[in-house]
Specification:
alpha/beta, six-stranded mixed β-sheet, four-stranded antiparallel β-sheet, globular, Rossmann fold
Length: 233
Amino acid sequence: MVLDIQGLRVRYGRREAVCKVSLSVDAGEVVALYGYNGAGKSTLLRAVAGLARRAGGEVLLDGRDTRKAEARRGLRYVPESPVLFSHLSGEAHVRVFADAWRLDPDPAFEAAEALGLGPRMAQRPATWSQGQRQKLMLALACLGDPTCVLLDDPVSALDPRSGREAMALMRGLAREHGTAVLLTGQRPRDSAAAVDRFVCLHEGRAVSEGVAAGRGEEAVARAVEAALEASWE
């Protein structure tokens, strides 16, 4: 497996935001974390990316602890809210990050084109919509054939068509390059078509998991909704 999470715990004061969650993502696999607001999805991704302090457990990427910078070189994290430079064009963002990490910029430019950003890449993202900025973040995640990509609710700012294109892009990244993809979401119908497996989170705990591949979006959505509703009982 590429990403191995065992017994992960994250605390904010006395509150346990992530409670002993274990899951894995293999090369070429797309796994989704589904749950309501406050379930711990974003916190879990931040802990995997080394941005939130762990209270316990282990996170390994290709057998190496992700708290170490060298282990995170093949890791790409895309937060729900885009983090970009207001003074740089879309093209400049790609070149700056590619130069900083010594990576080939072409995969990011190809991803931007596939997401419909081609004509806008000479412009500053500060003038773009939230959805367009999110697309640029997804394109940047494709730099350098990443080992693992973490996507925090990647289609929340996208219209349905753009959301499907974004999920197809990530699915292609997994299939063609063997990238392990872990994403979060509240609405399974937005991403289930691109997902192999799913895990349901409730109040920081993994309460259910299942296979998504081949089941169809509606079947996955019903399974997730049933699991999350049952967790309140």
